[in-house]
Structure formats: C-alpha cells, structure tokens
Amino acid sequence: KTKGFIFDLDGVIVDTAKYHFLAWKNLANSLGFDFTETQNEQLKGVSRVESLKKILAWGNTTVSDDKFQALMALKNTEYLEFINKMDDSEILPDVPRVLDYLIENNQGVSLGSASKNARVILEKVNLLSKFKTIVDGNDVSKAKPDPEVFLNAAKSLHINPEDCVVFEDSVAGVQAANTANMISIGIGSKAVLHEADYIFNDFTEISTDFINKLINN
Ligand code: G16
Ligand code: MG
C-alpha cells in the first residue's frame, strides 16, 4: 500500500531550530529583553509572524506595523546568514536512510514545513530531490497547530489524511498532525511531545520493522 510520509523540516531533517532560536534571541536582546529555551519550545513549528507576536508579548513590548515588518525582516536576514553556511553535514542522523527506504518502497514522501525558507534549506543540504511534493510557509495561510499544511501535503500526494504519517519536533506540529487525523511521530523529548502517537529521540531509533508496520497497517 502507498502511504503518505510527511516530514517537518526544522528540527526533524536539519537542526535549524537552533538558528531560529539564536536569531530570535538576538532580536529580543536588541529590544532590551530575553526569553528562555523553555519559552522557545512555543516558537517551534509556528510561523514567523506568530513567533514575533509571542516574543513581543513576552517582552511586554508593542510596536507599529512598520516596525513589526522591519523586525521580521531583520530576524530573517540573520537567520539566512546561518542557512547560507549549511551543507549536507547538518542533516540529522539517519534521515537519509529513512527517506531512501520510503522512496525505494514507493511511498509518498512530502515536506510539510511552516518555513518560507524550506526550499533554500533543502537545496543547501542536497535533499530537494527526495521529496515528491513540498508544502511550506509560502503555501499556507494558517500556522500550525492548524492542520492546513499537512492536509495540503496529503492532497498534493493524492493520499487520504488517515493514510498519512507525520514526523514532527514541535508541540504545535504534533497537534496539527493529530487534528488532521494523521499518525503523529514526535522526534525529540517525551516530556515535550507526549501528545504524539509515537516518540523517538531521533531517526536512529526508527527501525525498518517499525516503518514496515506503518506502511502495512
Ligand atoms: C519552522 C520553525 C519555526 C519557524 C517557522 C517559520 O517550521 O520550526 O520556528 O518560525 O518555520 O520559518 P521562516 O521564518 O523560515 O519562514 P517547521 O515547520 O519546518 O518546523
Ligand atoms: Mg519543526
């Protein structure tokens, strides 16, 4: 049977989550406040606009619409400086093994990311050709935990949501997958991702047996 396997990007395929954190932290510091790594969990998987809204609220700061746009642009410029230095050494462990296994077994492989920089990052790490379809921050209007991005990915693969599996590192993304009626697989810590159907620290813990069960269930 052909199932849909939808991969989140930041924090699942590559550890760009650390670059988002650094860039947002520098921005907050420049505005005169800071936020913690625990607060940062709430930014994962969330769109650029929603992230800045949360950060400004944490700092009890309000800005004009023009300033808001300027701050988003500033953050993205710094983020892109990190991205431009990336290469395939930054692909997270065993991601290529799982991607290649799914492709060899004729499964639908799609990207479902909130990032507007998704294509650039996949090109940098040489994984663009692995994905049959890509749905990213340029294609959706509602940020995770809204299921829009994953429902669009399922549609792009011509596979029913019930036959899709989502790999996610964020709370918002796991919630989006669950709302979309997909199997959610959390990549990261059990303490954070407890709403997921399955949780693994990383792809090295995902066996061929387990993937076969997902394909055949
Ligand atoms: C990612 C990150 C989020 C980030 C969002 C938008 O989503 O997890 O922290 O805010 O993309 O990114 P950009 O500013 O590059 O458009 P995902 O869904 O790939 O984890
Ligand atoms: Mg993510």
Automatic annotation (TrEMBL):
Where's the active site on this chain?
D8 (nucleophile), D10 (proton donor/acceptor)
Tell me the Gene Ontology biological-process terms attached to this UniProt entry. carbohydrate metabolic process
Query: Which one Pfam family would you cite for this protein?
Result: HAD_2
Binding annotation for Mg(2+): D8, D10, E168, D169
Where is the site labelled Important for catalytic activity and assists the phosphoryl transfer reaction to Asp8 by balancing charge and orienting the reacting groups?
S113, K144
Keyword Isomerase annotated: yes
Q: Where does substrate bind?
A: 8-10, 24, 43-48, 51, 75, 113-117, 144
- Report TM segments: none
Q: Which cofactor does it need?
A: Mg(2+)
Concerning PANTHER family, the annotation shows: FRUCTOSE-1-PHOSPHATE PHOSPHATASE, GLYCEROL-1-PHOSPHATE PHOSPHOHYDROLASE 1-RELATED
Q: Under what name is this protein listed?
A: Beta-phosphoglucomutase
In which organism is this protein found?
A: Formosa algae
Q: Upper taxonomic classification of the species?
A: Bacteria, Pseudomonadati, Bacteroidota, Flavobacteriia, Flavobacteriales
